[in-house]
Specification:
The structure holds two protein chains of two kinds. By secondary structure, chain A is an alpha+beta fold. In chain A, 30% of the residues lie in helices and 17% in strands. Chain B has a domain at 143-299: Barwin-like endoglucanases. Chain B is elongated, with a radius of gyration of 26 Å. The chains are: A alpha+beta, B mainly beta.
């Protein structure tokens, strides 16, 4: 995917540093989603499908306004609708735009064994490079938000790119551009976080939402997509947003422990081989022999001596 | 500042002043309320001229003194020869009370109207509440004339009306969705992907009584026709207590009927929601009465 001037920070399955790292400084970007002013019009869903040129797929009515149960390999952006009854008998109709969260510490990238299949740019965007994907789906298990989706035909995994192709050219993501209420905004992480904090404060102090807050989970180092929620103490009510998202420990062990040990052992093999040579000397050349002659020579006794042993 | 020499552009005069050298006035978020009356003059911008209460001259007596000295909107300042106050005066700012200019500046007589001018409205000079032609109750204000006597009705054999005594006890309303546009977009794949099929929104309480779960097909019938679609069982439409009786309302988005991607795939009935609604026309605004009529509902 053409990404213009984006610099790479991290590469999946890659030994050594990212090429060009530190050459240019880049601001970290962030998508701001104010759930409290979303009207569920799904303009962002259409913008995503159109910009990314995704094919039409037949959906079915499922007793909800939600387009489909979850995002798909060819549907990266989905408003999740939830009817949330309140204690006073009233109802809150929650609408949350679900897509890749672009974690600061991406579980998908950590899990991925294929060199260059997942990269994280210096601006924080986590992007899949399908030409390097081996279809192992480790990223699916590594994601705390259930975002990467496998396509059984191409045997590759796909997800929201945060419109890295647009951002690399200085444009906002397609979903942001399409939003009619302004509940979606795009900018630097610092600016969006400040805006989200001030909006949450406004909700707490002026709009009767004492638990309003910003969803930017520290358990994965924060995200490059942040939410303003009416009730940040119950993120799971917004269509299963995890309260404390974590990367499965197996992938941490894989990347931080098992992989360095394996690498150390692999590197150790060369000196061990050298010392083995010095101590034991070169391996003696064996007489050339095929499988038949070897089998004959080792298992069948030579006929000569056997004949000699026969008593006269 | 808007000029009348063609050097400035405004569009609609109402929005004059909504965008100044300081930027978009509608984006202001000042929460200060100097008067304590909830005026919030620096919160966003309201047309025209950032005026918060229209006709606010009416808050003063004829001599220009506020009727309520505790809650003062605007008042006449004699030394300055101007109307001043916590809001922008909706009045000729230098018109002194002794000139007797009326506060309702958009009416020729300058005063408010209880009795509308002759022939302004088809149904008389006074505002009045009437029940819809199909209503679960008689008008509690005047049961003998429950509905508007001069409403326009079509007079074909199809223009029939149902009543609660005939079993039409559920209120039905029709509306549009943000995902579709009239009847066109049911042929556009992207819109159909968002909302593929027609549905009827039904309160959970009514669905419970019917033994109905979401996704099952229901048949909605009025005195005029029937409509079959899948049920969306929701808590968003709640039962109402009308004249002491628990009354249910259901809702039908209008976007389907005849041909379309879902219809051609055989996933839905090929009828229009307007087969249910009555063609009854408001005598003044000519708005058809599609927002409130009576139906029966059963499993299909």
């Amino acid at each position: 995917m053409p990404t213009g001037m984006l610099q790479i920070r991290q590469i999946s399955g890659h030994v050594g540093s990212a090429p060009g790292a530190g050459v240019q400084r880049e601001e970290e970007v962030c998508k701001y989603i104010d759930v409290t002013t979303c009207i569920g019009c799904k303009a962002c869903e259409v913008a995503c499908v159109e910009w990314n040129d995704m094919p039409f797929q037949q959906t079915t009515f499922d007793n909800t306004y939600q387009t489909m149960p979850a995002t798909a390999w060819n549907y990266w952006n989905l408003i999740k609708f939830n009817e949330q009854p309140r204690e006073d008998g009233t109802l809150q109709w929650l609408m949350r735009k679900d897509q890749c969260m672009h974690c600061e510490d991406p579980g998908c990238l950590r899990a991925c064994p294929a060199d260059g299949a997942i990269v994280q740019y210096t601006n924080g965007i986590v992007d899949f490079q399908q030409e390097n994907c081996i279809g192992c789906q480790y990223c699916v298990s590594g994601c705390p938000f259930d975002i990467p989706k496998f396509n059984g035909t191409t045997k590759k995994v796909y997800k929201c790119t945060l419109c890295s192709d647009r951002v690399g050219q200085g444009l906002e993501p397609a979903c942001i551009k399409s939003c009619p209420t302004g509940c979606l905004k795009f900018g630097t992480k610092a600016d969006m976080r400040a805006l989200a904090d001030s909006r949450a404060r406004q909700l707490r102090e002026h709009s009767g939402f004492p638990n309003a807050g910003v969803y930017d989970p520290p358990s994965i180092g924060g995200t490059h997509v942040i939410y303003v929620l009416h009730d940040v103490t119950h993120p799971e009510r917004y269509g299963g947003l995890p309260a404390n998202p974590t990367i499965p420990p197996a992938f941490t062990i894989w990347k931080r422990v098992a992989k360095p040990i394996a690498l150390a052992l692999a590197l150790l093999a060369a000196p061990v081989a050298f010392f083995h040579y010095v101590m034991e000397g070169p391996k003696e050349p064996q007489p050339p022999s095929g499988p038949f002659s070897t089998g004959f020579g080792e298992s069948a006794p030579p006929s000569g001596p056997a004949e000699r042993e026969v008593p006269r | 500042m808007l000029k009348d020499d063609g050097s400035t552009l405004c569009g609609n005069w109402l929005y004059s002043g909504s965008w100044t050298e300081a930027g978009a006035m509608s984006q202001r978020r000042g929460t200060d309320d100097p008067s304590g009356l909830g005026v919030y003059p620096n919160w966003a911008w309201s047309w025209p001229a950032n005026r918060r209460v229209m006709y606010n001259r009416a808050s003063c007596d004829p001599s220009g003194k506020p009727w309520d000295a505790e809650r003062r909107q605007i008042w006449w300042n004699e030394p300055a020869g101007r109307w001043v106050g916590v809001d922008v005066p909706d009045f000729k700012a230098d018109s002194a009370p002794k000139d007797h200019m009326g506060p309702f500046i958009m009416n020729p007589e300058g005063i408010g109207r209880l009795f509308g001018p002759l022939a302004a409205f088809q149904d008389g000079p006074f505002p009045e509440f009437y029940e819809p032609i199909e209503s679960p109750i008689l008008n509690p204000l005047h049961p003998k004339q429950s509905t508007n006597p001069v409403v326009q009705k079509f007079k074909t054999p199809l223009d029939k009306y149902g009543s609660p005594s005939e079993g039409y006890t559920v209120i039905c309303t029709t509306y549009r969705l943000t995902e579709h546009y009239h009847y066109w977009t049911k042929n556009n794949p992207m819109n159909v992907e968002l909302v593929p099929e027609p549905f009827v929104e039904i309160p959970v309480e009514l669905a419970g009584e019917m033994g109905l779960s979401g996704g099952e097909r229901v048949k909605v019938s009025s005195a005029r026709g029937a409509y079959i679609a899948k049920a969306m069982v929701t808590r968003r439409i709640r039962p109402m207590l009308i004249d002491g009786k628990k009354t249910y309302q259901i809702g039908i988005p209008i976007h389907w009927g005849y041909r379309g991607i879902a219809e051609d795939a055989g996933r839905t009935a090929l009828t229009s929601a307007n087969l249910l609604s009555p063609t009854v026309i408001d005598p003044n605004a000519y708005t058809p009465e599609f927002k409130g009529f009576l139906v029966k509902i059963e499993k299909a």
